[in-house]
Specification:
The protein has 179 residues and is α+β, with helices and mostly antiparallel strands. The chain is 31% helix and 17% strand. It is built from five helices and five strands, in the order αβααβαββαβ. It has helices spanning 3-12, 34-38, 58-66, 86-109, 153-159; strands at residues 18-23, 70-79, 115-118, 144-145, 170-178. Strands 1-2-5-3-4 form a five-stranded mixed sheet, with helices on both faces. The protein is globular and about 40 Å long.
């Protein structure tokens, strides 16, 4: 499957406002971002298999991405007038990640196996199996967020020619699939 075909598949998902393919060697990482996960503002630190500390160290996650040659970077933009509207943000991130998983399913079917970094922590389950001390229910599709990977999203979006900042009332979310 060519890169152009991969971009066509991504663009077919009406959710995405932009898509680009970059060499994984051009993805900017900053392990200093891990402190934001440790602050646990989202409440998932130690409570989700795909979040720190369970997901691995910044260096381990970086190696997972760099084990692949290319990354499909996806952006979606959402009308969210109030940035404190956690429900609206969660719905948008869930829709973004669900669309990513649909694209990834098609890429996997075409022989492009890889690693996803989503717009949030994994939201495949209502409640992570970690909290019941059970194994992950969706190990093939579970994904960590870009923050857990310590990806410098602003720099990556600029490298991809995508807007990071949006006008008031709008938010952009990003994800990638290394393949």
């Amino acid at each position: 499957m060519t890169n152009e075909r991969i971009l066509q598949i991504a663009r077919a998902e009406q959710v995405f406002s932009a898509a680009a393919i970059v060499p994984t060697s051009e993805i900017p990482f900053d392990s200093g971002f891990r402190v934001y996960c440790e602050e646990n503002l989202c409440g998932n630190y130690g409570a989700n298999y795909t979040c720190p500390p369970d997901c691995g160290s910044p260096e381990e996650l970086r190696r997972r991405i760099l084990a692949h040659a290319h990354a499909l970077v996806l952006q979606s933009k959402w009308d969210i007038p109030d940035y404190r509207d956690a429900d609206a943000i969660r719905r948008a991130k869930t829709a973004h990640n669900a669309a990513m998983l649909r694209v990834i399913s098609r890429l996997r079917a075409g022989g492009h196996c890889g690693q996803m970094a989503g717009a949030s922590n994994c939201l495949l389950c209502e409640r992570c199996a970690k909290l019941e001390d059970e194994p992950c229910r969706h190990p093939e599709d579970a994904y960590c967020c870009m923050s857990a990977y310590c990806i410098h999203v602003r720099s990556l979006s600029e490298r991809c020619g995508m807007d990071y900042a949006c006008p008031d009332g709008h938010l952009a979310f990003f994800g990638l699939y290394a393949f």
